[in-house]
């Protein structure tokens, strides 16, 4: 029997029973709840005009808040959660919230269309630093973010009027203001959410379409085995566009966001193990502890609202040739874990991708997790970098994404791994360039020979983001950059190309 979608919004528990399974949160807000402060700009998660904040129970018994794009989130995914919009910041006496007042004082708004989205991104940051909690907690947990953290929090919001300086100024100034008259009581909210959290699968139906949100992997596997064509939904950052841009009928949906097992993220002696339901933001935070070289890629992976919603498992399962996570993970030797009717299996991540949008997965199988080797043993000497080329620094799709890794045995290269996105129909290793490097000294001549070999590894296409020539030339340049960044402090003089390297290049 169909259950109502149950969530907290505007100081009350709401129940919805008559919405499509793919009705977006933005559509609900503007057309049903008449909360029109939230705007529609792009309907694809790029501009941030629709930014709202979702609150969900955390492991510590509190509430975790994250800014997300309402335009691509489906309403049934709100079940058991809290939804906050710009209307919620209005104070009891009608005054502005400190976040809003700071934008006024710093002249951070002109036409105002983007402003509600900026407000909610700023409010999420405000709450994160302990400013929107109960008065007693206000002083105890108050902190101020760096300007870099502020800029990162605003990566998902675009403004065409002000430039960004006054908005960033406002984000700094809002922390100097007194606490709001009615700060959010997080403890009370946690109790409310605990009261509407389901212990079993949430089942919702509308117009012949099903939406199931199981609580265990076993139930997910059973649902997928019974109806293999059922669409698996995680963060909706890609699937959402199939509805808003391509007008596709998704059929039945099974949502993995309520499965606690898939939210697991831990590091053991040998592996960093990340469940398929872990968000991109949280996954990269864990990976960067072992591999700080991933920090820039973490910051440049889409935007914070997308990273807050999208999952690393979803990015891997999607398998886009321009997905930013795969090259770095492949270069690190990651393994993907699959689950299906026949049980569990795992494989090297690069083996998952067979051809464009074709993966080594049965229809009933799904990704449950990722295993990345830790930096232990011989891997303590790992040289690793990952690079992204795109037209914008923030929130843009890669033209080329590259990752390089090898174990440095003195001056000798061991176990080289090179992977690229944007260079082929799938994320793919550069086998011929790796053969040039394996066992060779890490000299400039070796790097140049490997650069030549890349021409035999890839024949990239030309599209709206880059030409084939640009892609291949910049791929070679990125490998050279890797050499410049990882060479010895006192590099040896240039010398003729290694004969073995030349032969490897010429025979391929």
UniProtKB/TrEMBL annotation:
Keywords: FAD, Flavoprotein, Iron, Metal-binding, Oxidoreductase. InterPro entries: 2Fe-2S-bd, 2Fe-2S-bd_dom_sf, 2Fe-2S_ferredoxin-like_sf, 2Fe-2S_ferredoxin-type, 2Fe2S_fd_BS, Ald_Oxase/xanthine_DH-like, Beta-grasp_dom_sf, CO_DH_flav_C. SMART domains: CO_deh_flav_C. It comes from the Bacteria. GO terms for molecular function: 2 iron, 2 sulfur cluster binding; FAD binding; iron ion binding; xanthine dehydrogenase activity. Residues 203-377 form the FAD-binding PCMH-type domain. This is FAD-binding molybdopterin dehydrogenase. It comes from Caballeronia glathei. The lineage of its organism: Bacteria, Pseudomonadati, Pseudomonadota, Betaproteobacteria, Burkholderiales.
């Amino acid at each position: 029997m169909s259950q109502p979608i149950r969530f907290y919004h505007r100081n009350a528990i709401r129940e919805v029973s008559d919405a499509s399974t793919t009705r977006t949160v933005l559509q609900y807000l503007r057309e049903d709840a008449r909360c029109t402060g939230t705007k529609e700009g792009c309907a694809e998660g790029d501009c941030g005009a629709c930014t709202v904040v979702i609150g969900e129970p955390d492991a510590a018994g509190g509430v975790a808040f994250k800014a997300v794009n309402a335009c691509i989130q489906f309403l049934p995914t709100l079940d058991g959660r809290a939804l906050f919009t710009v209307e919620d910041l209005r104070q009891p006496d009608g005054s502005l919230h400190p976040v809003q007042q700071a934008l006024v004082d710093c002249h951070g708004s002109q036409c105002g269309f983007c402003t509600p989205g900026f407000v909610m991104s700023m409010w999420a940051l405000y709450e994160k630093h302990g400013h929107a909690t109960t008065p007693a907690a206000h002083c105890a947990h108050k902190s101020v973010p760096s300007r870099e953290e502020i800029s990162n929090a605003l990566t998902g919001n675009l403004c065409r009027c002000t430039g960004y300086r006054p908005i960033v100024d406002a984000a700094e100034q809002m922390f100097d203001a007194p606490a709001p008259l009615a700060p959010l009581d997080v403890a009370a909210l946690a109790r409310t959410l605990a009261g509407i959290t389901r212990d079993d699968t949430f089942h919702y139906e509308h117009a012949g379409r099903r939406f199931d949100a199981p609580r265990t992997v076993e139930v997910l596997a059973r649902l997928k085995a019974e109806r293999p064509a059922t669409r698996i939904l995680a963060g909706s950052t890609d699937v959402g566009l199939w509805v808003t841009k391509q007008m596709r009928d998704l059929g039945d949906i099974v949502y993995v966001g309520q499965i606690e097992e898939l939210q697991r993220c831990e590091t053991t002696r040998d592996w960093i193990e990340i469940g398929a339901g872990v968000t991109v933001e949280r996954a990269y935070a864990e990976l960067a502890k072992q591999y700080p070289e991933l920090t820039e890629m973490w910051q440049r992976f889409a935007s914070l609202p997308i990273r807050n919603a999208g999952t690393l498992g979803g990015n891997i399962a999607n398998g886009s040739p321009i997905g930013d996570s795969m090259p770095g993970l492949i270069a690190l030797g990651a393994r993907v874990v699959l689950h299906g009717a026949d049980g569990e299996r795992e494989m090297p991540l690069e083996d998952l991708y067979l051809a464009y949008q074709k993966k080594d997965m049965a229809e009933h199988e799904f990704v449950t997790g990722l295993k990345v080797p830790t930096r232990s043993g011989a891997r303590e000497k790992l040289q690793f970098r990952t690079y992204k080329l795109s037209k914008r620094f923030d929130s843009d799709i890669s033209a080329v994404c590259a990752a390089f890794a090898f174990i440095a045995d003195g001056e000798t290269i061991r176990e080289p791994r090179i992977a690229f996105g944007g260079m082929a129909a799938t994320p793919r290793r550069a086998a011929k360039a790796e053969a040039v490097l394996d066992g060779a000294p890490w000299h400039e001549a070796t790097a140049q020979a490997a650069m030549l070999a890349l021409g035999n590894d890839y024949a990239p296409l030309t599209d709206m983001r880059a030409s084939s020539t640009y892609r291949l030339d910049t791929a070679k340049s990125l490998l050279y950059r890797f050499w410049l960044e990882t060479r010895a402090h006192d590099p040896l003089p240039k010398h003729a190309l290694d004969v073995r390297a030349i032969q490897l290049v010429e025979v391929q």
